[in-house]
Write a structure and sequence with these properties.
The complex is a heterodimer. By secondary structure, chain A is an alpha+beta fold. Chain A contains two helices and twelve strands; from the N terminus they run ααββββββββββββ. Chain A has a six-stranded antiparallel β-barrel. In chain A, strands 6-7-8-11-10-9 form a six-stranded antiparallel beta barrel. Classes of the chains: A alpha+beta, B mainly alpha.
Chain lengths: ~270, ~170
């Protein structure tokens, strides 16, 4: 039997390496997009089923876990209820005040926009950064659209759209960058994510004033995200590493780790 | 062929469970990587080789698709981890049950850590190739310890499921 030029094992390893290189170099453009589209189209119902059943199971566990505290909680709630009844009378006045404040702070009047409510059906299993929602281009969702929670708090924007699902890049993702402004001092900057852990407002000019507790909203610069979406409050202000700008640590108001229902702003009504 | 289809569907199932079901129960960075555990299980227990290559290749592509990472990142990481764990387990496995258990625990811990490192490295390389930054966080902290612990628990679950006579045949 003639001796082989290369041992069989080496041929196999070479074949695998070549395949990996092809996948790596051509993957993003020619393979990834159609594969991902088809895969999500096929797995969408299962993904939704798994996520919803997981949520239900989790809330059932949480419910049983909280039974012990229910008696105390009930007594506390009765007390609180009496207090709330007296507060309700003042609410109408507050509603009017809220409307005026919203106008003064340039916060977005949400009724002017066409919103698409979506369920979260998946998250990044490798830690923060993105979520998956149950609506896609069949409902008119497009890449770049801002995503909020019901009361106008920005959580991210649409990154990739499929037939019945979309990927939302959260504001905590390290590649996310959103133009923002301080409602108190009008200081402008860019809100960036910090590896899924938190957010910072960067590129704030040294001449601008920014203080702990200030509310940060979207500035509308860049065009894709409308002005006036609430992002969070300033926790701490410091100089950037190159000392050219100021940097503010922002505490997002929306609880990004437990999102269930979000709304996509599709455009003006 | 039948075996390959069953393993392929198992991987898709595990990826969906991990991405859509387990995310409800674990904190972000400590979600156990079921596919990695499945691959480690195969490396340690299965007697086949060609099907193993197919499993790792398809698992890598599915994870890349499902977790929005450039195609190839998880293929490379799974191949690297499988080779290193296979080498480690082959050279250090022992007849003593306690020692074998210890080696298994080390293999799983090593597998989880190496996988994270390889993904991080591959994403850096992919970032250089495509000219973009792919975000991925990794650090030696309590989340990583949690991930290793849960991975070990899931490995044991896999062990008890796949040791049943029906599944046992698949790994021969």
């Amino acid at each position: 039997m003639p001796k082989r030029f290369l041992p069989e094992k080496a041929v196999k390893i070479f074949f695998i390496l070549v395949l990996i290189c092809i996948l790596f170099f051509l993957g993003q453009k020619f393979i990834s997009v159609p594969l991902r589209y088809t895969f999500y189209k096929l797995t969408y119902p299962f993904e939704k089923m798994f996520y919803v059943s997981g949520r239900t199971l989790r809330s059932t566990f949480d419910f049983f876990g909280s039974i012990y505290d229910l008696k105390n909680e009930n007594a506390r709630l009765l007390k609180e209820n009496n207090l709330l009844i007296s507060e309700i009378t003042g609410l109408k006045e507050l509603e009017q005040e809220n409307k005026i404040l919203r106008e003064q702070l340039n916060l977005l009047p949400l009724n002017k926009f066409s919103l698409e409510n979506c369920f979260v059906i998946g998250e990044n299993p490798q830690g923060g950064g993105w979520i998956l929602i149950d609506k896609g281009n069949s409902k008119g969702i497009k890449a770049g659209m801002p995503v909020i929670v019901s009361n106008g708090m920005l959580v991210g924007k649409i990154e990739e759209v499929y037939a019945d699902s979309s990927k939302v890049k959260l504001i905590t993702d390290s590649t996310s960058a959103i133009n923002a402004v301080d409602t108190e001092t009008q200081a402008k900057g860019i809100v960036k994510g910090e590896y899924g852990l938190g957010i910072v407002m960067d590129m704030i000019s040294q001449s601008d004033s920014i203080n702990a507790g200030d509310a940060i909203i979207t500035s509308g610069l860049g065009g894709d995200i409308p002005k006036g979406l609430f992002i969070g409050n300033v926790q701490e202000v410091k100089n950037s590493s190159d000392k050219l700008f100021q940097e503010a640590l922002i505490i997002p108001k929306a609880k990004l780790s437990s999102l269930e229902i979000v709304s996509v702003i599709k455009g003006e009504r | 062929m039948r075996k390959s289809i069953i393993f392929f569907l198992t991987i898709v199932f595990l990826a969906l469970v991990q991405g859509s079901f387990l995310v409800n129960f674990f904190s972000d960075r400590s979600i156990p990587n079921l596919i990695l555990i499945f691959i480690i299980y195969i490396v340690i227990n299965a007697k086949f080789k060609k099907t193993g290559i197919f499993i790792i290749l398809s698992a890598g592509i599915i994870v890349d698709i499902l977790y929005y990472q450039p195609i190839g990142v998880n293929v490379i990481s799974f191949f690297a981890v499988a080779s290193l764990i296979g080498f480690f387990y082959k050279h250090f496995s022992a007849y003593n049950a306690y020692f074998r258990f210890l080696i298994l625990a080390i293999s799983i811990s090593l597998g989880v850590i190496l996988y994270e490192l390889f993904v991080l490295l591959s994403l850096k390389i992919a970032g250089l190739i495509y000219g973009v930054i792919f975000s991925y966080s990794f650090s030696f902290d309590k989340f990583l310890l949690g991930k290793i612990f849960y991975s070990f628990i899931f490995y044991l679950i896999f062990y008890f499921i796949f040791k049943k006579s029906y599944f046992k045949k698949l790994f021969e």
